[in-house]
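Notes, Module 5: Reading structure tokens.

Key idea: the token line is not a picture. It is a compressed description, and you learn to read it the same way you learned to read a sequence, by spotting repeated patterns. We will look at two proteins. The first is printed below with its tokens.
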Amino acid sequence: MSSLTPLISARAALEELAGTLTTAPAIGLDTEFLRERTYRAELCLLQLTTPHGPVCVDPLALTDLAPLAAVLGNGAPKVLHAGRQDLEVLLPFVGAITPLFDTQIAAALVGHPAQIGYGELVRRTLGHELPKAHTRTDWSRRPLSEEQIAYALDDVRYLLPLRDSLCEALDKLGRLEWLAEELREMEDPAGLEVDPERAWQRFKGLQSLDAGRSNLLRGLAAWRERRAVARNRPRGWILDDTVLREIVYRVPRDAVQLAALEGMPEGVVRHSGDELLALVATAAISDPPPPLPRRERPDPALVARVKRLAAVAQTIAAELQLAAEVLVTRRVLEEIAAGRKACDTLHGWRATLLAARLDAVD
């Protein structure tokens, strides 16, 4: 008989939990965290299922979660719902978590909405209504009430029954291999951390910039990402997106021009102005800079082809009783419409189902 309590806050109990989990055929997992004031999410609570029932682990009361690293890094499947953020939050504490089963991904492949929530999936699949009273609670405050703990336990209580039900449905549909492909991508820990040199990719609508401004965007985005990581502060606290865009568009050459940009905080100019101007200089943009590209109207022929491709994708999705966005994103359809072969753009089960029919669209 286990002596585990619903809330684990002592090292000895954590070690007992780790030992108990080694015999579990599958482990449900969820987290509660805060991210309003920091770059890295602050882990406030970890919920896990055990053979004796769900438990909460209090990371704010424990020095570390190392005893869980081995059991979460291999062995039994770890079952989450929309688990990317949970994996990201837990990475510094227990390392990469494998193998994985994501009930939101599995549900989408069965035919549920692509972004279906945990509570709605529990209601549809298992017939249970979950309370919503603590959806906006501050999980960093202590002590936690009995109601908060009960709410947190419910977040993992139904994960394993959901997994069983979804696996049965996917097996009947012949789609278990589809899920295996999706989960292999999810298990790659490289996708959980932002490479500062790729931080510029977060900015949309800047693909038509001249070469100099493109270099400046890359430099500014990487500088901001490194600064946010080093200070553990949100990106927007270092430099707001709109202000970063203004630097790229206006290309200030000195502190006066920098300070004159719309929305530029005085403190940023005072403390980081020299670094920002150095990035402008490094980008080697002519003075005056090239004219900003005019916002061109979309090519009507390209728009029409995207619509035809989308119609084919919708037809295939309807045949499979899936949401179309599960099959293919609009970005991929735009790439195909622009001339890239669907067989080169799509992979795995999606390529098998879609590539030939999309490549046949004129």
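Here is the second protein, with the sequence above and the tokens below, as before.
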Amino acid sequence: MELSRSARWGAVAVAVASFFVTAAAPAPAPGAPGIGDPYFPELGNGGFDARHYALDIAYDPDTDRLDGRTTLTARATQNLSSFDLDLQGLDVTRVQVDGRRAAFTRDGDELRVTPRDFLRKGRDFRVAVTYGGVPEPLSGPIVFGSEYGWMKTPDGVFVACEPNAASTWFPSSDHPSDKATYDIRIKAPRGLTGVSNGRLVSTYDKGGSTYTHWRESRPMASYLATATIGKFDVRTGRTPGGTPIYVAIDPVLADSNSVDVYAVTAAATDYWSELFGPYPFEETGAIVDDMPEAGFSLEVQSKPAYSAVRSETTIVHELAHQWFGDSVSVAHWKDIWLNEGFATYAQWLWSEHQGTRTAHDSFLAGYDSRPAGNAFWQTLPGDPQRDTMFASAVYQRGAMTLQVLRERIGDDAFFRLLPAWTKLHRYGNADTADFVRLAEKVSGQRLGDLFDTWLFTPGKPAL
């Protein structure tokens, strides 16, 4: 069949247009090795958006060896010639992209992957990494001088990774701005239980091993993932408000808890659901493990992990994080007061709810006990710096900021603001400027002076 003259010219026009579109498309380039967070410039990765992690791990407490295969489904955000994943230590033996072997190199904590063909912008792809070794916990001044990450216990491992230790046990885009859903499968010696995020899909024994499969179907920051393994007494049920609950407690601690972890978890989950908006995840709960060397607890998504610290105030703090920190996560680590100031203020609200002390009195107790010359007032909660991002001022002065805000705009506006914040940024990320804008919108007031004084100005603010 011969084309008419007009049809031939049309075909030529289409070909020319196609040529120029192709020519204008950016050439494939490597993804950035980090997102440029001011505190952790190399955390996270550029060039793609993490969508889903399938983690398959096998752990032997006798040798402390971890063998794993991580399959990450991601979407290219540029034409990618190569891309990075964060991975600290551990030996990589094989990398595949969409089922085909891919070249890889290591540079410090970066795993650079070069697929056989470049990945076009907008395309979904899968990278599977097979790896193994003995994970090492991190240490230093950041987390109260404590070790954190993958921490060996007498019968297994306690896994709590804030802010940058998820990549000590699985390759990831290890920054809270790159959330994804998760399937986590854990193989451990028979008799031990692997506890992770979301809901339990299955558990069974085979040979000398116990297998557990957990699914977190809501977006999650990598530092909130856990694969805590050990002997646990497990209690399940529902809170009075109907939320499924899973509490795992190391039997060694059965008689040492000063609080009923299950009851407080249920009560706090329901109360925060009234105050902060609907509970954002499929399950609530707790992991209570025998790990006194970890001088902290962590708001692990759906099941906070408690070590040596497991008081009622700690439980309500970590559960408040399910809204402030887990569902609404920081855009950059300098905004950490949005997590810790809010969870600390939740402790004050809990005391108010219990009728023991008003939030105003909690504010005054902290304010009056610290003279103007105290170093506490020199830490800026709105930008505390990396090594002091968990300083007490981030928690306490952050909470004071919220009380001052509450007294400025009134209870009606304040208690409309909190659920409006968690709804607006549900499963996403936000920063301080976002919160200021919303507070001004809800209250109808200009509030820049308040936040500048309490978050970004050194010295004890005048009342």
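Summary for the second protein:
- The chain has nine helices and 22 strands.
- Residues 1-23 have pLDDT under 50 and may be disordered.
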